[in-house]
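Marked as duplicate of an earlier ticket. Keeping the data here for the record.
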Amino acid sequence: MAIKKKNKIVVVGAGNVGETIAYTLMIRELTNEIVLVDLNEKRAKGSALDIAHGTAFYDQITVRAGGYEECADASIIIISAGVGRKPGQTRLELAQTNISIAKSIARSIMAYAENPLLLVVSNPVDVLTMAIQKETGLPSNRVIGTGTSLDTARLRYLIGRECGVSISDVIAYVLGEHGDSQVPLWSRVRLGGISLKGFTDQLNINIDYDALAAEAKDSGAEIIAEKGATYNGIAMATSRIVEAIVKNEHAVLAVSHVLGDEFGEWAGISMSVPCIVNANGIEKSVNINMEDYEREALNNSAKTLREFWNNLEQ
């Protein structure tokens, strides 16, 4: 196992998402100690024990249940607790219930932890990232939302499928809200260093951009309609962010955090932009060139999130 120093990760929420995140972290050997925290202590203990049995096939990783006091010396605290999205329900409609849960969790964490690094997974992730950052008073680079990391993965998968290439050769980003107003940056897509249009023109491939964007955006709702919940994809997206942190990678990822004044009209809200992620959390945000129509769409995404946030504040 590459990780030698003590590296505890606390996962708050032992439901389908939290348990799958813990399992994914274990099999990818990204930590040597995982603690599951949940109001339902029996569920947390059962999930931890189930995963712990599998450690016999890997390097020795401790997996157990615990309380919020475990946050005191945690390297990363992952927040995945909350009410799941129901079929036909948007992520933003979840906010009224989940925001109060998130604030309570934030207070419990801060009762034990000093300057923790928080990774928010619960939906609606952008709004909850804002609420948790405000509740904790932590620097915005220490409260990271998974944001459009999964949407970006879905778009890369779809582009790879349509173009017949490995996903690893597809560079693409979905930015803005993790939800209905998300924005795929078609102008910045690259396959082996070639623009998407250049690649498809050479190989005589026809892509319906609108249909592909809609498929990426609606994938979560489709999975929920088919099986009742999504958890495998978001667990893998979460583990990728954790990897960038624990390995101090300086990786450029599409994640969300409360944006600073340098973002102008986007400042003060949480939405996804390309960010350099390392052991400190978000080291800095990257200003990516885009077409005017993409900038306008991102302005609309920011407006959507701000209006919803303001309604919550009233």
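See parent ticket for discussion. The first strand starts at residue 8 and ends at 12.
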